[in-house]
UniProtKB/TrEMBL annotation:
CDD domains: SH2_Src_family, SH3_Src_like. Residues 68-129 form the SH3 domain. This is Uncharacterized protein. The keyword Nucleus does not apply. InterPro entries: Kinase-like_dom_sf, SH2, SH2_dom_sf, SH3-like_dom_sf, SH3_domain, Tyrosine-phos_adapter. Residues 7-16, 54-64 have a biased composition (Polar residues). One of its GO terms (cellular component) is cytoplasm. It comes from Heterotrigona itama. Keywords: SH2 domain, SH3 domain. The lineage of its organism: Eukaryota, Metazoa, Ecdysozoa, Arthropoda, Hexapoda. The keyword Isomerase does not apply.
Length: 289
């Protein structure tokens, strides 16, 4: 999630005071440990440095109709109100943004407590956005990703996704692994973008969105994630669906890692036009008395 390091205004028309600005917990030097692949109800415990405060409390101005953005945000971290005009929340809470006209403090409606007030904007992300995912780290380099993942409390298979340092449209998947003779280490994989907006790691399997890609690979466990990425994961033939073997073999050809070995669209069109699936019901003699 993109957050400004500087440039705080001296006047906040929505009531947020400059002195009450809260440091971004995801910026370098503030986040002390990785918070990766944890269930959303589990709070993210962050130590928020004490900030000097003004003696007078800011006044929360009512949001005009034109200011309301009608967007829902999700809390990325815990926050405890420091002023009577603030709204407390825990990681995972949902809030409607009433006024986001100021860069540092947004006025929101907490959708559970129904409390209205101010929150630090850098503690939330738009619902269902990549930035709202626990596994996504915007401001983390390859080297920093390795340090975060190698923390002792993170088990083998723990991973995070970060923007690529070389491809402005791509991402990188960093995974904690263990091997005999090498111990714990971190492997990095390129998540490449498609022209149509999708993403892939292995060329034989593409996904429409980044969360869809992560969901597919994170359904596996630990070492299996790395092994399957290296080998090129292929969907197995479903057991609960009568898929003909000939169709499944053709699907495997379409997923071949070598593009030259994949069938052409012309071949596929001709194949399915002429393909006939028949099901014959055995003839039964009528019962005799």
């Amino acid at each position: 999630y993109k957050k400004a390091d500087t440039g705080l205004s001296s006047k906040h028309s929505n009531g947020g005071s400059l002195d009450r600005y809260t440091a971004d917990p995801n910026q370098r030097g503030v986040q002390t440990r990785a918070d990766i692949i944890r269930p959303r109800p589990t709070p993210c415990k962050l130590q928020i440095p004490h900030q000097p405060r003004k003696t007078s409390s800011p006044v929360v101005k009512p949001a005009s109709h034109s200011q309301r953005s009608n967007k829902i945000v999700v809390a990325l971290y815990n926050y405890t109100a420091r002023e009577s005009t603030d709204v407390s929340f825990v990681k995972g809470d949902r809030m409607e943004v009433l006024d986001d006209s100021e860069p540092d403090w947004w006025k929101v409606l907490h959708l559970t407590t129904l409390q209205e007030g101010l929150i630090p904007w850098n503690f939330v992300a738009v619902e269902r956005s990549v930035e709202s995912e626990d596994w996504f780290f915007e401001n983390v380099s390859r080297k920093e990703a390795g340090k975060l993942l190698l923390v002792d409390e993170n088990p083998r298979g723990t991973f995070l996704v970060r923007p690529s340092e070389h491809n402005p449209r791509g991402y990188s998947l960093s995974v904690k692994d263990w091997e005999e003779g090498r111990g714990h280490h971190v492997k990095h994989y390129k998540i490449k973008p498609l022209d149509n907006g999708g993403f892939f790691i292995a060329t034989n399997q593409t996904f429409p969105t980044l969360p869809a890609l992560v969901m597919a690979y994170s359904s596996m466990q630990g070492r299996e994630v790395i092994e399957q990425i290296n080998k090129g994961y292929r969907m197995p033939k479903p057991l609960n669906h009568p898929l003909p073997d000939s169709i499944y073999r053709l699907m495997l050809q379409c997923w071949d890692a070598s593009p030259e070995k994949r069938p052409t669209f012309e071949f596929l069109n001709h194949y399915f036009e002429s393909f006939n699936v028949t099901s014959e019901i055995p003839y039964l003699e009528p019962p005799t008395d």
